[in-house]
Amino acid sequence: MSYVDEVLERVKTKNASEPEFLQAAEEVLESLRPVIEANEETYRKEALLERLTEPDRQFKFRVPWVDDKGQVQVNTGYRVQFNNAIGPYKGGIRLHPSVNIGIIKFLGFEQIFKNSLTGLPIGGGKGGSDFNPKGKSDREVMAFCQSFMTELCKYIGADVDVPAGDIGTGAREIGYMFGQYKRIRGMYEGVLTGKGLTYGGSLARTEATGYGLVYITEELLKDHGMDMKDKTVVVSGAGNVAIYAIQKAQQLGAKVVTCSDSTGWIYDPEGIDVALLKDVKEVKRARLTEYAAARKSAEYHEGRGVWSIKCDIALPCATQNELLIDDAKQLVANGVTAVCEGANMPTTLDATKYLQDNGVLFICGKASNAGGVATSALEMSQNSQRLSWTFEEVDAKLQQIMVNIYHNIDDAAKRYGMEGNYVAGANIAGFEKVANAMLAQGVC
Ligand code: NDP
Ligand code: 2IT
User: Fold this and answer.
1) pLDDT value at position 224?
2) DSSP alpha helices (H): ranges in 200-324?
């Protein structure tokens, strides 16, 4: 049996109850086949893939907090420190009722390769909790965040592990967590990224994931003789990534006609009004029905459906496994040119294959959403230097990083005879640097 097959089988047996982690591991290991085959003996002897698919360590802890009625609530907190071969563990904190250890492991595993692709010195990690911030008062969110950090602070640090935002964790939550870290550890350091601008945050971090997604999409199109101008774009999600992807796409002359949240979606043929969307989602924290109520041109539909709208470019920016095989078929039938992932693993494996087999330009999240964590690493640099760079400086660095990622994944795919397969290119390019560092550092 080949080494890849052997490890895949072992990973499936060991993690049978973690479907999302298995999905992520399968995608990566399948892509790595040609690289592993070229060095099979060394990698097998060094147990490189066994080490890569087993987290360095994982923490699971109780998070008790008191709600506004005086009732004690209990959630579960997680932090998975997956791999620090090339830098301190780095990755967000997800607050959503669906969170479990398998979800956090899949996200932490993806983060290893994504962070490597940024070209910056950051390892892979992820954390979260099954806490649901929806409908909670600010005081309840603060009580949860303080309790979560009371335990998490034992395991993190500016040179150890640096968490950030993800689904359900934005500037408000990072602020409460930072305050509690400072209070317990008595230390002012850049232990979290995505901080507010008055206490160590970086300009352009809020925009970075969505902007970065559009920068890499533009580079992909440019390489194929096209650009964003006058393209029709469909976006899913209406959170941090979606909002700034819509904004940048519109700045580059595209028309974005959809967005969605966990209950429904908007079709707005005149183009999404970003100021209104920000007011509904960032300020009022309300449903998309409020967007439709305030805008004549918009239709609101219950459930899911953004992939049914005819478009040139599709940007899934909500969550994992939200673009399924039937959606891929519909996008292809409607003549889609490119699909670039803003979310982590939004496209299922069979849908990805269908898009690729039908000539759609497809970039996977670990490459196309890397602008967020890359800018987090720029925030870490600024904190270490005790300096703040201008918006333009950070944005220019972000843009260059996304252009570099595109060419690195394109080159890696070409080197292994898989031109145009940006999934393989991303996994290979991300892996090479980490594997090299792991081998150089001996058995650890
Ligand atoms: P937000 O919490 O800001 O937004 C998530 C959006 O997706 C919301 O509009 C949410 O709806 C919607 N959504 C729809 N279905 C679901 C579901 N089943 N579970 C969760 N959300 C759902 O998160 P982000 O925009 O930060 O993250 C979106 C995706 O991008 C995630 O996959 C995340 O891991 C990834 N990502 C985020 C980065 C960042 O910097 N923030 C960086 C790289 C990747 P509703 O409004 O109803 O909650
Ligand atoms: O998935 C991701 O890359 C993020 N949620 C951002 C992580 C970070 O450390 O900025």
Assistant:
1) 98
2) 205-223, 240-251, 274-278, 289-294
